Amino acid sequence: MTCASPEHPAPGGLFVPPIAVPLRTIGGRRFDFSRQIAVMAIINRTPDSFYDRGRTFALDRAVAAAVQAVLDGADWVDIGGVPFAPGPELPLAEELRRVVPVVEALAAESDVVISVDTFRSEVAEAAIAAGASVINDTTGIHDPRLADVVADSSATLVITHSRAEPRKPFPRPQYLDVAGEIAAFLSARIDFALSRGIPEERLIVDPGHDLNKNTAQTLELSRRLPEVAALGFPVLAAMSNKDFIGETLGRDKADRLAGSLAAASASVLLGARIVRMHDVVASVDAMRMLEGILGWRDPVHAVHNV
């Protein structure tokens, strides 16, 4: 499919991002991000995650949820041991204890892409050794050594826009040009990652919906997502059940599925190729339906009026 620019979208309003390396081997799976949407499931091994509030904190529950996500069709499972939200520092040994056993157990069960949500180079190194093939750093490579760890492996790095120190508050964020500033930040961090030896085919960008941004800023970022996709890297949209959805709709966390699916679908039409979602079954169906509408996949059955 022909690439389009933010100023000149493809017919039908679809923005087709000019991904420099759309064909990716990540872990044991192959993706073509020129015509494929990956669904990333979320496993939080934390007692205080913003959405599930400890539902998968116990090791057996975390592993079971990860395996179920694969059975439900997830392409990717993201495992985290520390919330993004401000809070006290978690000891390194505790983060390792939370994350590594889940990675090991899932890697033994499946070839699904496993990512670990961490900003610590030590955790990244241990997670990769345990079977993770992606490091999902929500701090924009706050720890420079994390880039070195990824460079020395075959893992992929997700570079996310955020402005706060890890686990520190960032009250009343201000932007003169929210999407432009985010794209510039990501471009600079991409250059840094490349300078540390991570090849472009192992980089993904995430504009950080809600991360150090208020609802109005996140909505504008969402509208202007093509400016981020135009950087030429696959875009991860992590927006499931976030506060900008709740505030836009006036919905509590338990009632944000419809808004999350709408936001994820819009993000794909505006250039995202990976969506990070809590409800795997509904999200997989929504993304596969989008692929069908866009002509990227054939129906499972095609007997109606045949």
From TrEMBL:
Keywords: Folate biosynthesis, Magnesium, Metal-binding, Transferase
E.C. number(s) listed in UniProt: 2.5.1.15
Pathway the protein acts in: Cofactor biosynthesis; tetrahydrofolate biosynthesis; 7,8-dihydrofolate from 2-amino-4-hydroxy-6-hydroxymethyl-7,8-dihydropteridine diphosphate and 4-aminobenzoate: step 1/2
Taxonomy of the source species: Bacteria, Bacillati, Actinomycetota, Actinomycetes, Micrococcales
Record family assignment: Belongs to the DHPS family.
Function: Catalyzes the condensation of para-aminobenzoate (pABA) with 6-hydroxymethyl-7,8-dihydropterin diphosphate (DHPt-PP) to form 7,8-dihydropteroate (H2Pte), the immediate precursor of folate derivatives.
Top EC group: transferase
Cellular component aspect of the GO annotation: cytosol
Example of a GO biological process term: tetrahydrofolate biosynthetic process
Domain named Pterin-binding: residues: 37-288
Reported cofactor(s): Mg(2+)
Name of the molecule in the record: Dihydropteroate synthase
GO molecular function annotations of the record: dihydropteroate synthase activity; metal ion binding
Pfam family, one: Pterin_bind
